[in-house]
Specification:
Elements lengths: L4 H22 L23 E5 L1 H4 L3 E3 L1 E7 L2 E18 L2 E20 L7 E16 L13 E17 L3 E14 L10 H8 L1 E13 L1
Antiparallel strand pairs: 1-3, 1-9, 2-4, 3-4, 4-5, 5-6, 6-7, 7-8, 8-9
Length: about 220
């Protein structure tokens, strides 16, 4: 399998910068409850229960999604992230990248996050999630696509993420983080010489995750 280090290093650097920025911003969030706090115990007057965010890093590899977060009470969030994926597949043959079509599919993540902040989806966070997706392959070069053993398969597993997120001004959300995911596929697929994005989807196993959140909270 060929690992393209430049995109990985760029994602790592960007995520690190965003985490530092978001944590610095969320540090301004006072942990004490204002005197004019609402009736609910431990809830601020500016507490925002819902956040909708996108991950531009995922768009870069062909995954399009929007994550919704709902906080029934301070610090505790339920997350739902449906997505559509269109991931180009290339195979390295004789030192050249050959078009092998694309992986297309739908899926989602359902998870939980604990936030240290009191504004809503802000502060340090940590949380697990369950992953499920169904993919099919559209063929490109016929010879190259023979490296795949099936035209369709399921991908499922779990992940654990940590990071930081801030709610700025009227409700702008910015954040980032890292995580690890373990996924398994319903078919045994040969990922030798596949490009990194398609190998991650088709090969399963333990993989790193890079998070970069932009969105709005209300």
């Amino acid at each position: 399998m060929r690992f393209h280090r430049s995109p990985l290093l760029a994602a790592l650097f960007l995520s690190s910068v965003v985490v530092l920025f978001s944590l610095a911003a969320s540090a301004q969030d006072a942990t004490s409850i204002p005197k004019d706090a609402p009736r609910a115990e431990g809830e601020r007057s500016d507490f925002k229960r819902v956040a909708l965010v996108i991950n531009p890093l995922a768009i870069g590899i062909g995954r399009y999604s929007i994550q919704g977060e709902y906080l029934p009470m301070p610090h505790h969030a339920i997350t739902l992230n449906p997505f559509f994926a269109h991931i180009p597949v290339t195979v390295s043959l004789n030192g050249q990248d050959v078009d092998a079509g694309s992986l297309n599919g739908f899926g989602g993540e359902l998870g939980y996050r604990f936030y240290t902040g009191t504004k809503g989806a802000n502060g340090f966070f940590v949380g697990p999630s369950l992953l499920f997706a169904s993919y099919s392959q559209s063929s490109g070069n016929a010879d190259a696509s023979k490296s795949k053993s099936s035209d369709s398969f399921l991908n499922y597993g779990a992940a654990l993420d940590i990071g930081g997120q801030a709610v700025i001004g009227p409700g702008i959300v910015v954040g980032g983080g890292f995580g690890l995911q373990y996924t398994k596929t319903s078919e045994d697929i040969n990922t030798d010489n596949l490009n990194l994005a398609s190998a991650v989807v088709a090969g399963g196993g333990v993989r790193p995750r890079f998070l970069f959140a932009l969105g709005y909270s209300f």
